Amino acid sequence: MEKATLVIPCYNAGATIVKAVESALAQTVPVRIIVIDDCSADNSFELLTALAAQHPQLTVRRHARNGGPGAARNKGLRMVETAWVAGLDADDFLLPGRMAKLLEHAERSDADFIADDIIRIWPGQRPEEGFRVWRDETLGTVRMDLARFVRENTLRHVGFRRELGYLKPMMRTAFLFKHGLSFREDMRLSEDYDFYARSLAAGAKLDVIDPCGYIALNRAGSLSKDIPTKAMQKVLDSDLALLTGPGVSSEARSALREHLTQTQIDLAWMKLIDAVRARNLAAALKIFASPLVVSTSIIVRLGKHCLKIPLYPQGRDEGRDTAAKA
Fold it and tell me: Greatest CA span in the chain, whole angstroms?
């Protein structure tokens, strides 16, 4: 009997989806696999249909219209019948023993979420040439509460692209169903962070452990695409909702306020860029009338941008994507 299901949201991933699914099929323990095609315009669905015809443990469903990653993940979660569920992005892949290692940890832990540190690689690199996302040193097991989780998603503490929100934990299905947890479908940015934070606020026990074999592919220029300002506004809304929600300690509220300030600064920066592009001087000047911590940070950011100084501490992928310094 399968103990775990892998849910894979897919959108225009024809170049990578087969490798992702085949890595799930190659796990050393039996798993079920659910792929939700989010109305792809390429050949993703055709490739998935062909794979499903060969592998009974693979289920493929297709959205009639594009709903975003949250909607795709939620559809997959509603179909899960195993004790555990984990996510896999369509452009990532797993090493064969990854799910076995997570299930072994689950047998000796009371954790509801078990997240192994991710290994990032660049195209052409082998997994053993990659680098860890969160920590370079050996972790063992780190039990994570909401306050620490939020801080580990605040860039001044962890540096650029080293946030815990990138991890893909294996999650106890009964806990998700008991608390009615689902991904926010109106978020296209930081929806993972929001989901994990709300789960911790609901009482989830989260273990973070050393890498078990989740391999994430970096793509040159992937960070240079414009993030819509309204997407960052949703992140701010998420922070405000967490701050006013139940199950939040005073320490966690302090961490959330710090994350909220970071989000406010990022949103103000994006609004400034929008104003400059639109040649709207009034809108640009309005940014500097923001609260002092925001306006001061924007001035500092402008200076760093002009001097080509990184905004935040850089991870081991420094220099591979110049957008990290913008």
Answer: 63
Q: Do the beta carbons of residue 181 and residue 199 sit within 8 Å? A: yes
Of the candidates 205, 208, 185, the residue with the CA atom closest to the CA atom of residue 195? 185
Q: What is the SS3 assignment for 147?
A: helix
Q: Which DSSP letter does residue 323 get?
A: G
Going from the C-alpha of 238 to that of each of 76, 183, 188, the distances in angstroms are 23, 12, 12
Mean pLDDT of 144-166: 90
Residue with tokens 């064969």: 96
Which residue type sits at 128? E
Spatial neighbors of 162 by CB under 8 A, at least 6 apart, are 133, 134, 315
In contact, 145 and 201? CB cutoff 8 Å: no
- The C-alpha atoms of residue 210 and residue 136 are separated, in whole angstroms, by 10
| Pure H helices in the chain | 17-25, 44-54, 69-78, 98-107, 146-151, 155-158, 173-178, 191-201, 229-244, 250-277, 281-287, 292-307
Q: What amino acid occupies position 181?
A: L
Phi, psi of 17 (to 5 degrees): -65, -35
pLDDT at 310: 76
**88: how many CB neighbours lie within 10 A of its CB?**
22
* Pairwise CA distance, residues 262 & 271, whole Å: 14
Q: How many CA atoms lie within 13 A of 209 on its CB side?
A: 21
Query: What token pair was written down for 174?
Result: 């009964």
Is residue 154 within 8 Å of residue 262, measured between CB atoms?
Answer: yes
Rg of the chain, C-alpha, whole Å: 20
Chain-centroid distance, C-alpha 70: 11
Contact 295, 287 (CB under 8 A): yes
In terms of pLDDT, which residue wins out, 323 or 24?
24
pLDDT at 227 over 80: no
Q: Which residues lie closer than 8 Å to 254 by C-beta, 6 or more apart?
A: 147
Least-confidence region, from 2-6, 54-58, 149-153, 217-221: 217-221
